[in-house]
Design a protein that fits this description.
- The complex is a heterodimer of chains A (418) and B (86).
- Chain A is an alpha+beta fold.
- In chain A, helix 4 packs across helix 5.
- Helix content of chain A is 39%, strand content 19%.
- Chain A is built from 15 helices and twelve strands.
- By secondary structure, chain B is mainly beta.
- Chain B is 0% helix and 73% strand.
- In chain B, a hairpin with a 2-residue loop joins strand 6 and strand 7.
- Classes of the chains: A alpha+beta (418), B mainly beta (86).
- The interface between A and B is medium-sized, with 25 and 21 residues.
Chain lengths: 418, 86
């Protein structure tokens, strides 16, 4: 591929719009309950003191409360902090409402996560009305049609990366455009680490090439950036900062996984196996629902002392029955040499194949098993998850609750499938 | 104080045929009738084939999370908030 070098900033009018729902889960809770508005609120994975904060409200952020803090740490910063458990159905409903509203402007709509969307208006009638006008209209419509407390930050730019950067520059309720006329002014006002993807290691790479600021990086020649990153990644950065698109890529599904932070002390295989079974049941149903089978099974154990053990195994045949996946996962779990309290148990299925691409079996037993699994799935879909469950799962009713994955786009396939 | 509960509850609703919108207008809770003054959010979810409508509503100094089961046509109160911080 011929490399473009000595580029100026992309003169193309910006057509990409990045939209980010501010403090997503906490703001949605404030939308639902008006008495929470204007107060410091966090949504935490668990409301217990050690529960992890997954979304602080704008008011909580102003007090220094951040994603990843423990509830007890948040309470130290604010005694009146309101701690709520997640309500995934509510967040999915807002996501779907946003998705429906944004589809009025373009069919080129990419949900990047539960609270982030990218719209490409190139070639659509809405573009002729002006990107800023469209962004303002979307902000107003969200308040009128979805929730008056919801606010979004919008970024406009000629590529996805800069549109996301623009959306992060003014929070909450921001609207910023990066274009050929103001890019240098914006680059001068931010640090290298404000660029998504530049953290400690990449910063060190850039510094070693005498690049200390974003304008330095912009002005660096493409070969110099390539040398700094020791790979093609440097050239990708060159294109990104010059406003050219390099991130319009959709990665396919490569695995399915479920994990659970265990609230009590469990270390033996006997104690962990009911949770493993439930995780496998959830994961197996998702794999089958999306029309896949898996050949690989992986189990990961994060222990309470911070150490980690994991192992994956490939099977001869593609697995579809949760019982078979469980058997493999149990063998892996049993092979762990450590018997100490587990903090998080994770299981995943990899090496996927589409149901339609697999080789048909000549064995009648396999046909029977497929019919049985399909019947169980149908019953669970009709009457609710875990109506029919393996006996091994007894006693796990309140464990492994429903969750919305953060940042992951792949989870969103399932929102649509449901 | 925000209190998670799980109680069957009596709810009066109003259906606007022009907007095709149904809204709870009052809730009978612990022997007292509360008028609904604001709808915070309305969403739906399914458990199996059963569709549930969730209305997050507020009255004067009180918040209710009401769940309507479209199969049994019954209302369940799942959260009460008296407007105070616990």
């Amino acid at each position: 591929m011929e490399k473009l070098v000595n580029l100026t900033f992309n003169p193309k009018p910006p057509t990409l719009l990045h939209l980010d729902l501010n403090s997503c889960f906490a703001t949605i809770e404030q939308q639902a309950d008006p008495f929470l508005r204007g107060r410091p609120v966090v949504v935490a994975a668990y409301t217990t003191p050690n529960g992890c904060i997954v979304a602080p409200s704008i008011e909580a952020k102003k007090l220094g409360i951040k994603v990843g803090m423990r509830v007890k740490e948040g309470k130290l910063l604010c005694r009146e902090l309101i701690v709520l458990p997640p309500d995934p159905n509510k967040y999915r409903a807002v996501h779907l409402a946003l998705r429906s509203l944004l589809r009025d402007y373009t069919e080129k709509l990419t949900p990047k996560s539960i609270d982030e969307f990218v719209l490409d208006l190139e070639g659509y009638p809405a573009f002729r009305r002006g990107m800023m006008a469209i962004a303002t209209e979307i902000k107003t419509r969200i308040k009128e049609e979805i929730g008056d407390w919801l606010s979004v930050s919008v970024g406009i730019a000629p590529n996805r990366f800069l549109a996301k950067l623009a959306s992060s520059l003014q929070k909450p309720d921001g609207l910023v455009a990066i274009n050929k006329d103001n890019y240098l002014e914006i680059y001068t006002a931010i640090k290298l680490t404000d660029l998504s993807g530049i953290k400690t290691n990449n910063l060190a790479r850039l510094n070693s090439a005498d690049i200390y600021t974003v304008p330095d990086m912009f002005n660096a020649a493409a070969p110099a950036l390539r040398r700094a990153f020791h790979s093609i990644v440097g050239y990708h950065w060159y294109l990104r900062l010059h406003g050219f698109e390099i991130d319009d890529v959709v990665f396919g599904r490569r695995s399915y996984g479920n994990s659970y932070a265990i609230p009590d002390n469990r270390s033996s295989v006997e104690q962990l196996s009911p949770i493993l079974m439930k995780l496998v049941e959830k994961m197996g149903a998702r794999v089958r629902h999306a029309g896949y089978r898996a050949r690989g099974v992986h189990v990961g154990l994060l222990y309470r002392d911070g150490t980690y053990w994991h192992h994956g195994q490939l099977q001869k045949n593609y697995l579809f029955d949760s019982r078979d996946i469980y058997k493999t996962a149990l063998v892996i779990l049993s092979s762990s040499p450590y018997r100490q309290p587990v903090h998080t148990l994770a299981v995943s299925a990899f090496d996927l194949i589409k149901e339609t691409d697999r080789q048909l079996s000549l064995l009648i037993e396999v046909d029977k098993k497929e019919a049985l699994v399909a019947a169980v799935d149908k019953i669970n879909e009709r009457w609710g998850h875990f109506v029919l469950t393996p006996a091994r799962m007894l006693g796990t009713k309140d464990l492994v609750p429903d969750r919305v994955a953060f940042g992951g786009i792949k989870e969103l396939e399932e929102i649509i499938l449901n | 104080m925000i209190q998670p509960v799980n109680l069957p509850v009596s709810v009066t609703t109003h259906f606007d045929h022009k907007k095709r919108v149904t809204l709870p207008v009052s809730v009978l809770f612990e022997g007292r009738e509360y008028s609904v003054t604001k709808l915070g959010f309305h969403h739906t979810y399914r458990e199996g084939r059963v569709l549930y409508h969730v209305f997050s509503v507020a009255g004067l100094n009180i918040f209710f999370r009401l769940v309507f089961n479209t199969e049994t046509l019954g209302w369940l109160l799942t959260e009460v908030h008296d407007g105070e911080v616990s």
